[in-house]
Amino acid sequence: MTDLYRRESKSVSNMAQLRFFPQAVVGGKGSYLRGDDGRQLLDFSASWGAASLGHAHPSVREAITRAFSDQAGASYLSSANEPSVLLAEKLLSLVPPRSRGRVWLGHSGSDANETVARMVVAATGRRRILAFKGAYHGGTSGSMAVSGHPALKGVEKFGGLILVPYPNSYAAGDPTAASAAALSPLEEVFSADVRPEEVAAFFIEPIQGDGGLLVPPVGFFAEIERFCRQHGILLVCDEVKFGLARTGLLHAFEHSGIEPDIVVFGKGLGGGLPISAVVGPEPIMNHSPTFSYQTLHGNPICASAALAVLETIEKDGLVRNSADIGSYMLASLSKRSRDWDLVGDVRGKGLAIGIELVGDRVSRAPAKIQTALTVYRAFQLGLVMYYVGSNSNVLELTPPLILSTSEADEGISIIGQALQDVAAGKVSPDLISSFAGW
């Protein structure tokens, strides 16, 4: 444990900490972080995808400098400012026609999803919301209230929340079985106690992130979209974690060929700065003035950074890079995983990749302790990655969109070494005693 990490433990509250190993950094560039011990750490998390262009990207840095050197205020609460208008116009140009109405700007995916949950109920007069088991839509009280992740069991849920299963092809045996198992309960949602006209919206993740990086079967979300259209339910797509080029397409929902009513952006939108956005139809988005606001919403510095991120994704072909490097990584990991006894499944799209660890490949029992030890050992070897999943047994890889082939190879090599060391019993469980993780 380094000096910086010790100092933090004596000065910073742990209420906002989700720790897996004693990581303490003082800088970073590109796909690498620099620890306070001088080590270079290859970053396969990108701060859970928030540092979408990597660290200290020139485009973001220059945009922030320009905006701050001639500052257009600090908010859009009581004044229009140019950067927030430019960002809103850009976002409207990127979403499907169905959601091309107005844009709300916030600080994070959490406050964005909370705003949507409140907004759809208020604007439609419908008192229920559908969401998936395993879903994590944020860390504020309102966003946790519409989430289905088991880590949030003790949190008070929205009174009208209905949770249905998300398809898990690995657990079910194949995509067809997974789709059927998830759609069947949906058909039984409506009863004497729950009527279609009571449901305001269905919150979806096109790929379920914290629930285990689950990739839905082909055609699954087309059925969800049909269900929503049939019953007049708004389709809300949470693109916070896997949107904006992360999956090898600009939007993760494009893989399913659907058109959401409302799109939620966050994390990578700011390239490391706090900003989120909700894009949706004008009648919903303009429900009421001062309905959801904080003083620094629409901050021109953050808006400028976000605009630079969107422009850089286009200019530098990062959608294609994500698709190409992601496909390369999936193929390499899948091939090498045959020699890694702990690996049960490798899945993902683009640079959103999950590696599920199991005790054995027959029972597929979650290897929770081994997963925690693997990310710890990888950190010792110079790689930053974390784990997710309802059973805390899925290594999550969300590296910067600028990742190169050589960096991908470096990270995969470290993952392999870490898995082998853990399987051989070379990593002591005592190391993770202070790190609860998920």
UniProtKB/TrEMBL annotation:
Entry-linked Gene3D superfamilies: Aspartate Aminotransferase, domain 1, Type I PLP-dependent aspartate aminotransferase-like (Major domain)
Keywords (A to Z) from UniProt: Aminotransferase, Pyridoxal phosphate, Transferase
Cofactor: pyridoxal 5'-phosphate
Pfam name, any one: Aminotran_3
Molecular function GO labels: transaminase activity
Highest taxon listed in the record's lineage: Bacteria
Keyword Transferase among record annotations: yes
Family according to the record: Belongs to the class-III pyridoxal-phosphate-dependent aminotransferase family.
The protein, known as: Aspartate aminotransferase family protein
